[in-house]
Amino acid sequence: MTLGLSERSLAGLLFLATTVSVGGATRDLLAEDPSSENTHVVMASDVQWQSLNPNRGDAAPKAGTLWGDQTEDGESGFLVKFVDGFSSPPHIHNITYRGVVIAGGLHNDDPDAEPMWMPVGSYWTQPSGEVHITAARGDSVAYVEIQEGPYLVQPPSEAFDTGERPVNIDASNLVWLNASDTSWIEATESSGGIEPEIAFLWGQPAADQVSGTLVKLLAGSTGKFMTAASTFRAVVIRGQLHLHLEGKDKIAALVPGSYFGSEDEATHAIATDEETIVYVRTVGTYRVEAKQ
Questions:
Q1: Cα separation, 228 vs 266, whole angstroms
Q2: Amino acid 247: pLDDT
Q3: CA 37 to chain CA mean position, Å
Q4: Are the CB atoms for 106 and 134 separated by under 8 Å?
Q5: Ramachandran class of 121: left when φ > 0, alpha when ψ lies in -120 to 50, beta otherwise
Q6: Contact criterion met (CB below 8 Å) for 271 and 278
Q7: Is the predicted pLDDT of residue 26 greater than 70, yes or no?
Q8: 182 and 8 in contact (C-beta within 8 Å)?
Q9: Which pLDDT score, from 0 to 100, does residue 195 have?
Q10: Counting CB atoms within 10 angstroms of each CB, which of 80, 105, 112, 145 has the fewest?
Q11: Would you put residue 183 in left (φ > 0), alpha (ψ -120 to 50) or beta?
């Protein structure tokens, strides 16, 4: 299923300001504008893994918390790691979750559905109460997000229907937008058609509303995420993002599965060496400025 959002519903969410710079090292550019002191970072290498379904022990995928706590009440975001060939028994969840593929290939659908292997960058939702299976091709990792917890795995006998339906969007079907082809993204200076891009995934992109987006940054970009949102949460999906923290001499290299976030007004200074995709979840709006 492919979802579309109107320009009217998206107006005012994001402005991608693109300029062109000549020369200058990435580290020097970042040093001019370090990220806000309230930035919180979790490196992928520091994630603590535990069984996603304690009832199945080592037979279950592994979960690693990035923010919140998926075992408690409240919203949270976490990584799920699958071994090659994993296939779950039919099951349901007590809550709806959203997922983005970070590594490998994942299939999430009705138990009798033919496999549709979603590659890196793909997005899906799994409604609460609906019977499904999840399978992995290759060692796979996904970022999973819930609006309320705890996240529980339950048997098909407890299935229920909320009227919500699943969504599976292959990475190749994402709609990427930039300043050249939308009226609501503003470019401060021409960059020869080479600009950051954004794909809208879910939610209401407006002040005080929750939404999820993907941002694609080009290789060799430097810039910043700026937000006055009550919460800003970002997960590296593909590539590598350099993040300069205030008061730190070292620039953090965030590989896929790494997280950074903040609350209230904040600026996050970033740079890339390669094309990089970042998933962003905000309560409120944010802006990206990037130059190459």
A1: 6
A2: 67
A3: 22
A4: yes
A5: left
A6: no
A7: no
A8: no
A9: 72
A10: 112
A11: alpha
